[in-house]
Amino acid sequence: MAPLAPRAPQPDDADPELAAIAKEISGCEKCGLCRTRTRTVPGQGNPRPEIMFIGEGPGTDEDRQGLAFIGRAGQLLTRMIAAMGFPREQVFIGNIVKCRPTIDNAGQKDRPPTPEEMTACIPYLHRQIAILKPKVIIALGATAVKGLFGESMTGITKLRGTWLSFDGIDVMPTFHPSYLLRQGGDSGGTNKAYWDVWGDCVAALKKIGREPPARKKI
Ligand code: SF4
Predict the structure, then answer these.
(1) CATH number at residue 45
(2) Which ligand 1 atom is the nearest neighbour of the CA of 34?
(3) Would you say residue 37 lies in a domain?
(4) In testing the pocket of ligand 1, which one of 26, 37, 99 has its CB within 8 Å of the most ligand atoms?
(5) Relative to the CA of 203, which of 26, 38, 124, 171 has its CA 20 to 30 Å away?
(6) Which parts of 46-146 are beta strand (E)?
(7) How remote is the CA of residue 119 from the centroid of ligand 1, in Å?
(8) Beta pairing partners, 136
(9) What residue owns the CA closest to ligand 1's atom 2?
């Protein structure tokens, strides 16, 4: 197999502590996902962000490029971040696990990480959060909430829109962009789940003292 091209430099690479964690992750073999990954995906963005987004784990595109949220769901997230008034580089985007989980570990279809995989990987995220010190975390989907708060935190539909706290940082749980895509994405303005998530993003903006941009359903 041809050697992989180096991962494109990211803004957080300039932060020595984050870069050291990313390097550690790149050689990690703490769970079985190391055997099927193409690249590790430590997360990327502003090393001093106001807002941090946390998802579940890398998918196909992320696994190929070593970057978080760059597939279809990532593009939707990028549009949402832009609607909030931020360039993507101004926030930090990461995941609960740093290697792609696939069904039967066959490298075909994505699956959520197991509790054991999350337990093995979560210390990296905890260390990243301690360095990043975001004002607000937006947890994208059920797995992100479970990864941060434990397996007993179930029912994202009920949890979303309600503030939680992780290590003194306000956390807003909301739906994952992949779920939004399955519900119709952001085209047409009739996807209720999309506007639920937008409402959660507005709450996050208000929490950090920013005026939310006006948007209306079309
Ligand atoms: S998912 Fe996390 S714990 Fe498992 S091998 Fe990858 S970096 Fe290590």
Answers:
(1) 3.40.470.10
(2) 5
(3) yes
(4) 99
(5) 124
(6) 51-55, 92-95, 136-140
(7) 10
(8) 51, 170
(9) 121
Closest ligand 1 atom to residue 29 Cα is 5
Question: pLDDT for 24-69, tens place per residue?
Answer: 999 999 999 999 999 999 999 999 999 999 999 999 999 999 999 9
Structure tokens, 198:
């937008």
Determine the residue type at 114: T
- 150 domain-assigned: yes
Domain that holds residue 115: 12-207
Whether residue 213 is contained in a domain is answered as no
Nearest CA owner, ligand 1 atom 4:
31
Mutate to test the pocket of ligand 1, among 26, 30, 143 (most ligand atoms within 8 A of CB): 30
Query: Tell me, what amino acid is at 213?
Result: P
* Two tokens, residue 130: 């301690």
What is the side-by-side order of every strand in the sheet holding 136-140? 44-45, 92-95, 51-55, 136-140, 169-174, 164-166
pLDDT at position 75 is 96
Query: Hey, which of 38, 56, 98 would you mutate to test ligand 1's pocket, going by the most ligand atoms within 8 Å of its Cβ?
Result: 98
In a domain, 34, yes or no: yes
Beta bridge partners of 93: 44, 53
The domain tally of the chain equals 1
| Contact by Cβ (8 Å): 176, 197 | no
Question: Quick one: average pLDDT of 124-144?
Answer: 98
